[in-house]
Structures are given as structure tokens and as C-alpha cells.
Amino acid sequence: MKALTLKAPGGLDHISLSDIPDPGEPGxxxxxxxxxxxxxxxxxxxxxxxxxxxxxGRILMxxxxxxxxxxGEGVTEFKVGDSVVSCFFPQWQAGPxxxxxxxxxNTPGDGIDGMAAQYVVRDVTAFTLAxxxxxxxxxxxxxxxxxxxxxxxxxxxxVKPGDCILTLGTGGVSIAxxxxxxxxxxxxxxxxxxxxxxxxASKLGATHGINYKTHTQWSEKALELTQGKGxxxxxxxxxxxxxxxxxxxxxxxxHISLIGVLTGREGEIPTALLMGKQAxxxxxxxxxxxxxxxxxxxxxxxxxxxxxxxTLPFSELAKAFEYQTSGSHFGKICVEW
Length: 337
Prior knowledge:
Blueprint: E1 2-6, E2 15-19, E3 30-39, H1 42-48, E4 58-59, E5 65-71, E6 83-86, E7 119-123, E8 127-129, H2 136-139, H3 142-156, E9 164-168, H4 172-184, E10 187-192, H5 195-204, E11 208-211, H6 218-225, E12 231-236, H7 240-249, E13 250-258, H8 271-277, E14 280-283, H9 289-302, E15 308-313, H10 317-326, E16 332-336
Parallel strand pairs: 9-10, 9-12, 10-11, 12-13, 13-14, 15-16
Antiparallel strand pairs: 1-2, 1-4, 3-5, 3-7, 3-16, 5-6, 6-8
């Protein structure tokens, strides 16, 4: 079968379309899935370009959606023909984060082989059902970006109607934030360097947009839009270079979800400002399987579909990563067989 593998030490020119052995039939408690599509995330890019070292020959990609082809002995949760989507932390079934999810030793496309293969055989706990009526390409956006937004707003943020959320950029997480906020009756402020993207975000349901090129101290605009109070929740995707502005923007007692490190992995935190705001700064990485099932149920109930910017063949994965690096996308970038 075909798979996209990475030769150590990484680099987009080290991604190969390889012929590897078929995984065979599922054993007890396992399912065999024909993968239809995957979606790109920043974590996948860091593995592919060598920023996160992994084993040579690693099959890439954490996200995967497809069709169940066979079920092993004792499997009752899935049946042949079901559409399913993978889990980022297959070992984390429910409950709060614990030591088992420290690092990425069990994350597909990093510590273990990923979803950029025509077929995979995994334990049933590594997948959930996909939303009814969704294509595999749509479903592949759930695993990382969609679930991250869901956990930040619902599981951890406890967003309620009328809350004001600020999200940075217009990538997959931020677009999912807009959609979930609309579902919950919350308002959203979006930042971007592109007025065109801000206009698109507005049409999708964002309440306000801030161009951070025009307003370099964009926290001032966020405070103005909230009558000086500050926003209730911030989806912090930038990291060190944006964190101070986020803390300036948050209301007293607000919640900042630290999700991304697009501007680097190390940096200073204005601790006195954070203390003065009495805000909660919480790091989070995706979510658990139970949360993914809840998210899928919410998507079905509200008839929401993801925004996909571009879809390429799996064989053009390196080209898809190059497009991701350009920052031109609005929503998700996907690859499919």
C-alpha cells in the first residue's frame, strides 16, 4: 500500500510516497480503516520539517478519516462501512489531562505511525464515529483543530451566551472557534493581517475584526470594542510575541487558552500584568476521546460543516505544507487519496 513517510532528520524534501506492507486484518478489539483524507496542522508541519524529531520512516499526519473495512473480535462500537475519524491522543479516553498525555509518544504522525497511509489497523479507542453526512475530508478537520477549539471553549472555558471571545488569526482553530461560538450564542473578535480575511470571517459569523498590521497594539482595539472591560476568553495561538497583548485584552478574571506557538516556543510572560488581571492562563493540547464524541454530536445537531481552504492529493503533501507555511489559507488545508 501507499504511505507518506519521513526520512530523518526531516525536511519537506525528505517526505516520500512509499510502498509499505499492508497492515492486514484487525486483531481482537481492533478495526481496519481505509483512510480517505487528512488535514494539516502546525504540529504536523513541525514533525515534517524536522523541528520535532521522530523516527526515520515515520508515517506522517495525526488526523485521519475514513471507512471501517473490517472489525476484530469483540468489537461492538463500530461496524463495517462506518465513517470514522482518528483521535490525537488515543490513550486519553476521558477526564482531565494526566501524565499519560505528557509529550507525543502515542500521537499518530509523531510518536507512532500516522494517518498518511491508505489503510491502518488500530484499537477501537483510536477512533470515533464521524459526523453523519460529512465527507472524509471534512471529518479529517476534527481530530486536532476542531477538537482543540471545542475543548478551549466548552470543556475548559465554559463559554455561555453573551460571552466575548477573541481568537488570533483565521486558520483552522480560529474558524472552528467562530462556528462553535455561534452555536453557543457568544460573540467573537478575530485578528488578522488581511482585511479580506476579516471580511470573510465576518460573513462566517465573527462579530468584529482587528487588523493587527493597522493596529499593532491590538489590545487597545479589543478594549475599545468591549467598552474597556476586556474579553472573556482568548484563544492564544501566537505564543511569545502575542501573549502580552492577549493579557492586556483579557478582562479581570478572564480565561486565556494557550494553544499555539506560531511565534516561537520560548518567551517572557508579563507576570505582574497577569496577576493584576487575575486571569487564568491555561496551556492545552487538543482533547480526549469523550470530548471528541461530544463535539461530533454538537456538529451533527447544529448542521455545521468546516471551512476547507484547499484540498490536494496525498502525493502532494510537501506542497500542501509549503502552502501552509505561506499563511495564505483561510480555514483548513486537507489532503486525500
